[in-house]
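Two folds, back to back.
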Amino acid sequence: MRPFELTAPATVDEALAASGDFLAGGTTLVDLMKLDVLRPQQVVDINELPLRGIDTSDGLRIGALERMGAVAEHPGVYPAISRALLLSASQQLRNMASIGGNLLQRTRCTYFRDVASPCNKREPGTGCSAISGHNRMHAVLGTSDDCVATHASDVAVALVALDAEVRLVSAAGTRTVALADFYRLPGSTPEVENDLRPGEMITEVLVPHRDWASHSTYVKVRDRQSYEFALCSAAVALDVQDGRIADARVAVGGVATTPWRLPAVEEALRGTPPTPASFEEAASAAADGAEPLSGNGFKVSLLKRTVVRALLELTEERR
């Protein structure tokens, strides 16, 4: 790890005036500094800032510095969010990592984390080693000729499914952005991963109130049952009225370069009975537009099966 200067501001204004990388739980930043992937000259410890709290009085508000473990265990948090957090990392890491940091975590692509390998996300213009390399874990949706890395966050998938927003603050003021719009497709600039502007930070996550958001779940398919990133995941929520699906939310992870909403699947579910046949039919559109690589073609069928599994688990829980 290279030398750096550490500061610990006491207020948000002081933090915004500082120049450097923000440190909360450090479960991503410190790892990447050790690997020499990130080389900040100044690190700004923001743990003393008043950016905590979980409010469920009108929808859900989560302070950016709330720890993943605390959010997962809070009784007012929607099931899809809680389960996505509980299936993330280990208990020790969940007790350290912040919600804001989790949403901003970098990809786990091995080529991004290996400074000896060409990587457009780490060093623009050097190439993408994964396209012709080992790409079993990589994306089949939202990719480009410059990057095929998957987005790593579990809870971001659940939040996107539930129409979450992030509140961002800078010296210029405050703005609120839909989380689905916050993340950027790689295109020709994979180093630009989100809409966070220079001198800006996430202060809180907002999830709108919907009674049926409590009828939601998150399913994660992975190579082992603990501390592993998703091969595919699905967050689903259903509003079932009079034996028909009145509304639906579906988003997937582990298969795309961003948390990936599936509006075609949602539309196909509306008006249908919550049955295995309806789920199979709707999920047939889940992988539309997929572009598999040499080692991850299995994700196309896995994606459809994971969506069906999540919908089945959700309706079985309701009975």
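---
second:
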Amino acid sequence: MADNEHGGTDALGVPAHDFSTNRNACGPCPEAVAALQAAHLAQYPDPQYTALRLQLAAFHAVAPERLVIGGSSSELIHRLTQHALRQGATKVSLPRHSYGDYAQAAEVWGLCPGARSPVWGEGLHWACEPSSPLGRVEDMWQALPADASHHGLVLDCAYRPLWLEGPAPPRDMAALWQLWTPNKALGMTGVRAAYAIAPEDTAQAQVDALRTLAPSWVVGAHGVAMLQAWVTPEVQAWLARSLDTLRHWKGRQLALCERLGWAVLPGHQANYFVARLPLAQADLPARLAALRSQGIKLRDARSFGLPGHVRLGVMAPVAQAALARAWLSLADA
């Protein structure tokens, strides 16, 4: 079943205080915005993205032949699933709680029976770290046999640059498919572009086959500009500074949740977390709708398999104060 409860802009427009996405609330990154403003819009980008792949490869210290450019992480999720099917995969393994597009892509391509079960073997296996929605170390590692091949494992690194609680755990990245989506770390999710890095010993024919599944110019000039900005020292320095700010804001937001009686689930490592609200499950949708009418949006975690819970991205103190006022006003009504 598709995850149709994405956070962010909805039929009511852009929320004044949007806790429903995991974007970096310090953004948009000014240096990346300047790069978009300077983007050359009169011509198509290079359909092979030659210069961009060289820049991304240098940033990750990998061969440029391993890079695959994508329209977004969701686009690459679907393309990787289709590619796995064409290569003989018969099943997909998912974390217990995960982004809905993994399962939706599997269903579209006939690879998933519907159950989320970490069964390893021939097939496609998804992991995201820090995980979504819980922001934890991925539970899929516990299910991976020591002698298992990593070749079918895709590590979604969407939130890895936003790891707040100590360093991200080391992984054998050369043995995995990596999926990178910098727009979240840069606080500019309205710009869609992403890239995948193939495992080090992947046959070039396999990488080329994945590339050919994309339409021509799958990423436009603004997406190219964002990805090029992503690897610059100036943007990486901005990101490092923003993490310090997010840690401070997160501490304040966790304290606010405690004052409101919201039970935060433990183990979160990133700029978002999950909390259970002091409401009956049946009352939660109406309360979230009432908050949305006041310009505040939270992410209902039902689609992640966590009914009665919400996922909250860390926001600035002004947004936290607005949330507190709105919640208390509804509680007193």
